[in-house]
Amino acid sequence: LFHTEIPEGLRRLPGPKPLPIIGNVLEVGSKPYLSLTAMSKQYGDVFQIQIGMRPVVVLSGSETIRQALIKQGEEFSGRPDLYSFRFINDGKSLAFSTDQAGVWRARRKLAYNALRSFSTLDGTTPEYSCMLEEHISKEGAYLIKQLNSVMKDKGSFDPFRYIVVSVANVICGMCFGRRYDHSDQELLSLVNLSDEFGQVVGSGNPADFIPILQFLPSKTMKNFVSINDRFNKFVKKIVIEHYVTYDKDNIRDITDSLIDHCEDRKLDENCNIQMSDEKIVGIVNDLFGAGFDTISTALSWSVMYMVAYPEVQERLHEELKNKVGLDRSPRLSDKPNLPFLEAFILEVFRHSSFLPFTIPHCTSKDTSLNGYFIPKDTCVFINQWQINHDPKLWKDPSSFIPDRFLSADGTELNKLEGEKVMAFGMGKRRCIGEVIARNEVYLFLAIIVQKLLFDSMPGQLVDMTPEYGLTMKSKRCHLRATMRVKSEQ
Ligand code: HEM
């Protein structure tokens, strides 16, 4: 990029001067969301760094990101060919692979439709408005029981360890038509390792950009390859079982519906997109992976914020008690009556910005942004953390204030303010699980807040420092949970 000819009328990208071989790796450091946000103050919304030998364009600012991902969406919707991405879903991931635009679009549509139909399907009894509500309500009730029993046995619990199984069961229900016990070692050993997965695929991992590092022994990379291997084997085994028991007249779950699509396509002579069955059925691998890690991270952070801000936790419980009561389980339809809970969730998304960058993007042709030239195949980082902490958009951005999302009298959610939070990306690559995710985080929290009171272990402060990765996690810790409704103990 430094030696590229700049077309007339366009400018060369600003940015820090790179060192030979390592580029700006030292300045980027271990908290890229902070260092790249600081650089945006110096260089502006569009600047360039070099990680190793590879130039990377970093985008900040709500307007600039909107311009790139929506108005110039086609040019910014590719994925870069990064070393770590090749190991995800055997290199056939919908979210991480460098699929051509036509193939990616067809797979994305299939994934979107499958998710939508299996979350909105009728529940097994009229008590539930849809399958998603049924799965979450049942898993929420199991979770409460499980935490109650762990508290009795051990006196404390690690929030992520239990939440992740409940959340994984919701997506397992939709994808594979089954759930796992909280002590299932096969599932636990997979879902408990997602921290290490995120650390490698987080934006700016030097091994993705400095080829020599790929040949040096690295424990993290070895772990990453092994996690992906185990994950792929786990899903493959279930997919094979589905092929064996597949019945065209009884489509049980998302895996069946994807197999069904492959069968239909073989009969469709007009089908013009060439895709292997593996690429179609492999979509379920992406849905399962994306569906548990993100939501369990959101819920674990929510619990941590409740512990760090006990007065907020009390207000959440009071709102639930007054609007839903303590005698029945909360429902999706209660959401409009729980504005403080919605405001709390938005503030957790904003303040933690636990997905600080989207998955890296890549330009699909030569383009320009804000007058700067950006060549084809340039890797682009989208800094969501910067938008969520931009003092131009937020008053006192570093403080945790759920009320910022409520109307002046505190009775209604300020939807316009909520739309300023960037957590799911935007434009053509925007998260396809957003509706499910927002509903799931809301309903799990409503169920938890109704029944449980969380606090830290005596004498221990909660550590809210995030650990950097694709999804940033809070440090693993132990908390206490007390049942609020004594009769259920
Ligand atoms: C992509 C956020 C839950 C499926 C993404 C991206 C973000 C994101 C930031 C990348 C956008 C980009 O590259 O520009 C979140 C958050 C979640 C969540 C914050 C929960 C709180 C889910 C769930 C599913 C899902 C539940 C599915 C069950 C996907 C898929 C992609 C994606 C398949 C890749 C889309 C593509 O590359 O075209 N998500 N997500 N996500 N998400 Fe989510």
TrEMBL record:
Chief location: endoplasmic reticulum
Q: Which GO terms describe its cellular component?
A: endoplasmic reticulum membrane
Compartments annotated for it: namely: Endoplasmic reticulum membrane; Microsome membrane
Alphabetically, the GO molecular function entries are: heme binding; iron ion binding; steroid 17-alpha-monooxygenase activity
Residues noted as binding heme in the record, renumbered to the chain: C431
Identify the EC number(s): 1.14.14.1
Q: What is its membrane topology? A: Peripheral membrane protein
The record's comment on protein family reads:
Belongs to the cytochrome P450 family.
Q: Which PANTHER family match?
A: CYTOCHROME P450 1A, STEROID 17-ALPHA-HYDROXYLASE/17,20 LYASE
- Report what the protein is called: Cytochrome P450 1A
Organism, by scientific name, is: Echeneis naucrates (Live sharksucker)
